Predict the structure.
Amino acid sequence: MNVFDIAGRAMSAQLVRLNTTASNLANAGSVSGTEAGAFRALKPIFRAVGDQPGVATVQVDSVIASNTPATRRHEPNHPMADKNGDVWEAGVDSTAEMVEMIEAARQYQNNVQVLETAKSLTLDTLRIGK
Amino acid sequence: MMAEDALFGIHGTALALRSQRLTMLASNIANAATPNYKARDIDFKTAMGLAQQGSDTASAIRYRLPVQTSLDGNTVELPTEQTAFAENAVQYRTTLAFLDSRIASITRALKGE
């Protein structure tokens, strides 16, 4: 596994993270008539994969629903309210999602930087002796 | 890994090690968000010594000691890794420059200039 595989696959993983964050934020205000039916924030699970010591890229193992509880709101006039007059708002912590988004974007950028450096070093090596 | 070369001295070996270190530091940066990932680096001096004897350099790999531990067991500290990565890239270029000027002088000698 070379540096291009490592950075490239890490970028895909960060992109999955960014996509789940976007979907979490998009669903942040959604309501449901039951607690079980409420949307739960999705989280990608990262795992290091490597074939040699010290050399590993990252892979998204799975995307699981988080434990963030849905918020109960008493809103008897809501069309989806249950018999107690409650609706359940999606279990999404918007602030945490925003932080996650910035972190994913930064880490994506770091990998782009790694790729750029590796590319320029490889090209310089090819030009050696010319 | 090869022992010292008659034409290029230690620089061929150094370049291979620099490239190996580049991959390792890239791995650390790639795994900045992986739970339980332990950052690793090459102890360059030890690796160079092993490479010059013609032995395997795998035993020169060390775990990074983090300044601050994180809750998820990840020991990647991006500032440290990015500094090491930039430093290693400059050192790679330095080795390339040594090789380049060595090739230039050998070529001059061959041409009888």
Summary: The CA atoms of residues 11 and 99 of chain B lie 7 Å apart. The first helix of chain B runs from residue 11 to 30. The helical segments of chain B are 11-30, 44-52, 78-111.
